[in-house]
């Protein structure tokens, strides 16, 4: 073995030893961190035994709400059933043209351009009408909810 090969082997052994030491210390640090976490954590079983409170949760996200009453809203000869009394009252308070625009946009799912073609307005005008109608609906519903 030449001096060059011996030196390269020495470097390789030194590097391997250094890596082993780093890995060993990292495992000690990880074990120390886990032990500290385990000392701070409290078992859920301990909490339920201590407080005598059963742990449970109820997921109501996918439950169908029981609305009870439905309220009618008629536009263009069609009747829509609404679950909110305040929404039905607020819609009824809007001008007929605005009611039709809301109906076509939200219930018939027409685009603003299609509604504009039917009514003779531009798409941007219809968009502005809908935006103002929603603002009025919100204000009216807030007034109705405070009564």
Automatic annotation (TrEMBL):
Query: SUPFAM superfamilies under this entry?
Result: Sigma3 and sigma4 domains of RNA polymerase sigma factors
Q: Which Pfam families did the record assign?
A: Sigma70_r4_2
Q: Its domain of life?
A: Bacteria
Name the InterPro entries for this protein: RNA_pol_sigma-70_dom (IPR014284), RNA_pol_sigma70_r4_t2 (IPR013249), RNA_pol_sigma_r3/r4-like (IPR013324), WH-like_DNA-bd_sf (IPR036388)
Report the Gene3D superfamilies cross-referenced here: Winged helix-like DNA-binding domain superfamily/Winged helix DNA-binding domain
> Can you give the residue ranges of the RNA polymerase sigma factor 70 region 4 type domain?
87-137
Family matches, as CDD domains: Sigma70_r4
List the protein's name.
Sigma-70 family RNA polymerase sigma factor
Taxonomy of origin reads: Bacteria, Bacillati, Bacillota, Clostridia, Eubacteriales
